[in-house]
Amino acid sequence: MKKKIIRQILLLAGIISAMFLFTSCSNEKTEPEQNFEDLPLDDFTAATSNIMTEAPEGYYIVTGNFLYYVSSDFQESTIVCSKPDCVHNDTDVENLYDYTSCDAYFFDARQIDYYDGYLYVSNWNGTGTDIYRVSLDGTERTLFYQGQVDCMFSIYNGYAYFGEAAYTTEGKIHKLTACPVEDPDKTEVLFETDEYPDATMNRMRFYHGNCYFYLFDSAFRGEEGDSIYWKINLRDGKAEQMYEQSDCRMEWNDYGILAEVKDYITFDPTTQWTSKYYHIDPDSGEKTELTENDFSAIGTNDAFTNMDDKYIYFRTTDSDGNELTPEEQKIKVYDYEGNLQAEIPTKDVGEMIWILPGTDEHLFIQTTVREDGSYALWYVDKSDFNGSTVEPQKIELAGRG
Ligand SMILES: [Zn+2]
């Protein structure tokens, strides 16, 4: 009898201590709240790069192998290295390894994000992707995650997300993996497919609790290749293939999906095409063709390029085979009612590659620098959108040479 009671007490004590252990564990590693609705706009995603991020005290930018800081008003810039007489001042270094003593140097930095006092930088190391946790002054750098060859990286709502391709003898397996930023060992696979072994993952971005990306397969069907669009619901992990279309350009948000589908007329002697534009309802999936009555840019066959909470961005194209004159080169900004809110001349920005919706306050334009293949960035103040022309301003990066 006595024995039985003791056993029960021991059992009870065991349960209590297990409960205590469980609660103390979960208290110790609190997972970030999954509240997605009120997150501010934070979209600096180009195809497979993400070269700038916003921090409370300004912006951080990686381009041309170095990490830079730019103040919130874009007027001040420094390289993120305070070593005196550092090699970053030498512009004629022949062996890149000489730069490794510089706090701001990366072999090939492709993506940057900010979270809770630290920068996270993904760096191609020649055989794979290293994601580093970097202090804001550049002096501390620790390995946060070791990714595969193809590795998209982003921090969203306290979690780090990795869009990776693992190679097997059959081809690539595409995966979306996540972990709390505070607990990188706790990774979880949210999505996995081996159906597109030759595809690459593009434009992994996050919006209102969903992860969006597309797998682009150049050989999948036809010479233009196919884009297969995915949406992963981060609340329940549900993966949804949204759309599959050759040479299609799509963006998504609460307004639904906007898609531009190109129809080629000829490739010779110049490439000419017309486009059809669609709105796909996010709930019913109903597809409606849009016309120039919806957005005047559709009448001139402009390229649908991006969208954010408030605006839809088109850029002028040479779809009729005639090169654009400098005056014709522009970004057209519309509100959701189809009112033209701004025209942004782009003749002076150089080779424009991406319109980045950026933040609630600023739009960014990413261009390539022809001489060295690095990127340049321009900003546009969204509060200037009032129906007229708004000139882009260059972000000057200072601190080298
Ligand atoms: Zn340096």
Tally of contiguous helical segments: 1
What is the rounded distance between the termini? 86 Å
Q: Which molecules are bound in this entry?
A: zinc ion
Proportion of residues in helical segments: under 10%
Report low-confidence residues grouped into runs of 5 or more: 1-29
Strand sequence of the main sheet, in spatial order? 21-22-23-24-28
The gross shape turns out to be: globular
Write down the Rg: 24 Å
Mean pLDDT: 87
Number of strands: 29
- How is the main sheet built? 5 strands, mixed
Helix/strand/pairing category = mainly beta
Beta strand %: over 45%
Secondary-structure element string: HEEEEEEEEEEEEEEEEEEEEEEEEEEEEE
Model description:
With 401 residues, the chain is mainly beta. It has a domain at 248-391. It is built from 1 helix and 29 strands. A 5-stranded mixed sheet has the order 21-22-23-24-28, with no helix packed on it. Strands 1-2-3-4 form a 4-stranded antiparallel sheet, with no helix packed on it. β6 (118-124) and β7 form a beta hairpin. Mean pLDDT is 87; it is low at 1-29. It binds zinc ion (ZN). Residues 81, 83, 86, 88, 102-104 line the site of zinc ion.
Secondary-structure topology with pairs:
Layout: H1 2-28, E1 52-55, E2 58-63, E3 66-70, E4 77-79, E5 109-115, E6 118-124, E7 129-135, E8 141-147, E9 150-156, E10 159-168, E11 171-180, E12 188-193, E13 200-207, E14 210-217, E15 226-233, E16 239-246, E17 248-253, E18 256-266, E19 272-280, E20 287-290, E21 303-307, E22 311-315, E23 330-335, E24 340-345, E25 351-356, E26 362-368, E27 375-381, E28 388-389, E29 393-394
Parallel strand pairs: 24-28
Antiparallel strand pairs: 1-2, 2-3, 3-4, 5-6, 6-7, 7-8, 9-10, 10-11, 11-12, 13-14, 14-15, 15-16, 17-18, 18-19, 19-20, 21-22, 22-23, 23-24, 25-26, 26-27, 27-29
The chain binds zinc ion (ZN).
